[in-house]
Design a protein that fits this description.
The protein is mostly helical. It has four helices and no strands. It comes from Actinoplanes palleronii.
Length: 166
Protein backbone atom coordinates (compact mmCIF):
# COMPACT_ATOMS: atom_id res chain seq x y z
CA UNK A 1 0.00 0.00 0.00
CA UNK A 2 2.87 2.35 0.82
CA UNK A 3 4.42 1.70 -2.59
CA UNK A 4 1.17 2.67 -4.32
CA UNK A 5 0.98 5.94 -2.35
CA UNK A 6 4.62 6.72 -3.22
CA UNK A 7 3.97 5.95 -6.89
CA UNK A 8 1.00 8.32 -6.88
CA UNK A 9 3.11 11.09 -5.36
CA UNK A 10 5.88 10.60 -7.92
CA UNK A 11 3.34 10.55 -10.76
CA UNK A 12 1.77 13.77 -9.50
CA UNK A 13 5.23 15.37 -9.29
CA UNK A 14 6.10 14.23 -12.82
CA UNK A 15 2.78 15.60 -14.07
CA UNK A 16 3.46 18.95 -12.39
CA UNK A 17 6.91 19.16 -13.98
CA UNK A 18 5.46 18.35 -17.39
CA UNK A 19 2.81 21.05 -17.01
CA UNK A 20 5.39 23.67 -15.98
CA UNK A 21 7.74 22.74 -18.83
CA UNK A 22 4.87 22.79 -21.31
CA UNK A 23 3.85 26.24 -20.05
CA UNK A 24 7.47 27.43 -20.43
CA UNK A 25 7.55 26.17 -24.01
CA UNK A 26 4.25 27.82 -24.92
CA UNK A 27 5.22 31.09 -23.22
CA UNK A 28 8.59 31.10 -25.01
CA UNK A 29 6.99 30.46 -28.41
CA UNK A 30 4.50 33.27 -27.81
CA UNK A 31 7.15 35.77 -26.62
CA UNK A 32 9.45 35.02 -29.57
CA UNK A 33 6.51 34.96 -31.98
CA UNK A 34 5.26 38.37 -30.91
CA UNK A 35 8.82 39.73 -31.19
CA UNK A 36 9.01 38.34 -34.72
CA UNK A 37 5.67 39.97 -35.51
CA UNK A 38 6.84 43.37 -34.28
CA UNK A 39 10.11 43.19 -36.20
CA UNK A 40 8.32 41.94 -39.33
CA UNK A 41 5.84 44.82 -39.06
CA UNK A 42 8.68 47.32 -38.68
CA UNK A 43 10.44 45.95 -41.76
CA UNK A 44 7.52 45.49 -44.11
CA UNK A 45 4.78 47.81 -42.87
CA UNK A 46 5.82 50.64 -40.56
CA UNK A 47 8.99 51.70 -42.38
CA UNK A 48 7.17 51.72 -45.70
CA UNK A 49 4.42 53.87 -44.21
CA UNK A 50 6.99 56.26 -42.74
CA UNK A 51 8.92 56.40 -46.02
CA UNK A 52 5.71 57.43 -47.80
CA UNK A 53 5.01 60.41 -45.55
CA UNK A 54 5.59 63.91 -46.90
CA UNK A 55 8.54 66.17 -46.19
CA UNK A 56 10.56 65.23 -43.12
CA UNK A 57 7.78 63.32 -41.35
CA UNK A 58 9.17 59.90 -42.24
CA UNK A 59 12.65 60.66 -40.96
CA UNK A 60 11.22 62.13 -37.76
CA UNK A 61 8.98 59.07 -37.34
CA UNK A 62 11.93 56.72 -37.79
CA UNK A 63 13.93 58.70 -35.20
CA UNK A 64 11.05 58.43 -32.73
CA UNK A 65 10.64 54.72 -33.48
CA UNK A 66 14.36 54.24 -32.98
CA UNK A 67 14.15 55.82 -29.55
CA UNK A 68 11.05 53.91 -28.51
CA UNK A 69 11.90 50.47 -29.88
CA UNK A 70 15.58 50.96 -29.09
CA UNK A 71 14.62 51.01 -25.43
CA UNK A 72 12.28 47.99 -25.56
CA UNK A 73 13.79 45.55 -28.04
CA UNK A 74 17.08 44.79 -26.22
CA UNK A 75 15.06 43.55 -23.23
CA UNK A 76 12.83 41.54 -25.54
CA UNK A 77 15.74 39.96 -27.45
CA UNK A 78 17.70 39.08 -24.30
CA UNK A 79 14.55 37.90 -22.51
CA UNK A 80 13.69 35.64 -25.44
CA UNK A 81 17.19 34.25 -25.45
CA UNK A 82 17.01 33.54 -21.70
CA UNK A 83 13.66 31.76 -22.12
CA UNK A 84 15.08 29.61 -24.93
CA UNK A 85 18.16 28.80 -22.84
CA UNK A 86 15.98 27.71 -19.91
CA UNK A 87 13.89 25.59 -22.28
CA UNK A 88 17.04 24.01 -23.75
CA UNK A 89 18.44 23.19 -20.31
CA UNK A 90 15.21 21.86 -18.81
CA UNK A 91 14.19 19.94 -21.91
CA UNK A 92 17.56 18.63 -23.01
CA UNK A 93 16.22 15.04 -23.09
CA UNK A 94 13.22 15.91 -25.25
CA UNK A 95 13.18 14.96 -28.94
CA UNK A 96 13.04 18.62 -30.01
CA UNK A 97 16.05 19.70 -27.93
CA UNK A 98 18.26 20.07 -30.99
CA UNK A 99 15.73 22.42 -32.56
CA UNK A 100 15.61 24.51 -29.39
CA UNK A 101 19.40 24.74 -29.20
CA UNK A 102 19.57 25.73 -32.88
CA UNK A 103 16.87 28.36 -32.31
CA UNK A 104 18.91 29.66 -29.38
CA UNK A 105 21.99 29.88 -31.58
CA UNK A 106 19.98 31.86 -34.14
CA UNK A 107 18.78 34.23 -31.41
CA UNK A 108 22.40 34.70 -30.30
CA UNK A 109 23.23 35.53 -33.93
CA UNK A 110 20.38 38.06 -34.01
CA UNK A 111 21.73 39.75 -30.87
CA UNK A 112 25.23 39.88 -32.36
CA UNK A 113 23.81 41.30 -35.60
CA UNK A 114 21.91 43.88 -33.59
CA UNK A 115 24.92 44.99 -31.57
CA UNK A 116 27.40 45.07 -34.44
CA UNK A 117 25.24 46.19 -37.37
CA UNK A 118 21.95 47.78 -36.37
CA UNK A 119 22.48 49.48 -33.01
CA UNK A 120 25.27 51.78 -34.21
CA UNK A 121 23.07 53.12 -37.02
CA UNK A 122 20.04 53.29 -34.73
CA UNK A 123 21.98 55.21 -32.08
CA UNK A 124 22.89 57.83 -34.66
CA UNK A 125 19.55 58.03 -36.45
CA UNK A 126 17.40 58.34 -33.34
CA UNK A 127 18.97 61.75 -32.65
CA UNK A 128 18.55 63.11 -36.17
CA UNK A 129 16.31 66.02 -37.00
CA UNK A 130 15.95 67.69 -40.38
CA UNK A 131 18.44 70.29 -39.14
CA UNK A 132 21.22 67.97 -37.94
CA UNK A 133 20.99 64.79 -40.02
CA UNK A 134 24.04 63.92 -42.13
CA UNK A 135 24.07 64.23 -45.91
CA UNK A 136 24.09 60.43 -46.28
CA UNK A 137 21.19 59.81 -43.89
CA UNK A 138 19.10 58.01 -46.51
CA UNK A 139 21.96 55.64 -47.32
CA UNK A 140 22.40 54.89 -43.62
CA UNK A 141 18.67 54.22 -43.25
CA UNK A 142 18.75 51.92 -46.30
CA UNK A 143 21.74 50.06 -44.79
CA UNK A 144 19.82 49.67 -41.52
CA UNK A 145 16.81 48.34 -43.44
CA UNK A 146 18.95 45.73 -45.26
CA UNK A 147 20.53 44.55 -42.01
CA UNK A 148 17.09 44.48 -40.40
CA UNK A 149 15.70 42.27 -43.20
CA UNK A 150 18.50 39.80 -42.48
CA UNK A 151 17.81 39.89 -38.75
CA UNK A 152 14.10 39.33 -39.37
CA UNK A 153 14.93 36.26 -41.47
CA UNK A 154 17.11 34.91 -38.64
CA UNK A 155 14.47 35.38 -35.94
CA UNK A 156 11.73 33.93 -38.17
CA UNK A 157 13.88 30.81 -38.55
CA UNK A 158 14.38 30.69 -34.76
CA UNK A 159 10.64 31.05 -34.20
CA UNK A 160 9.86 28.29 -36.71
CA UNK A 161 12.31 25.93 -34.97
CA UNK A 162 10.76 26.68 -31.57
CA UNK A 163 7.26 26.08 -32.91
CA UNK A 164 8.40 22.78 -34.43
CA UNK A 165 10.16 21.76 -31.20
CA UNK A 166 7.02 22.30 -29.18
Amino acid sequence: MLDLALLCQVSALDFGVVVVLNALEVFTVVVVGVMVGVEFAVAFVLNRILDGLPDDSGQLGRAHGGRMLGAVMPVWYIGSLVLVAVWAVTGWRDPGAGLVVTAGALLVLSVIMSILLLVPINNRSKTWTPENRPADWKQQINRWDRFHYGRVAVIIAAFALLAAAH
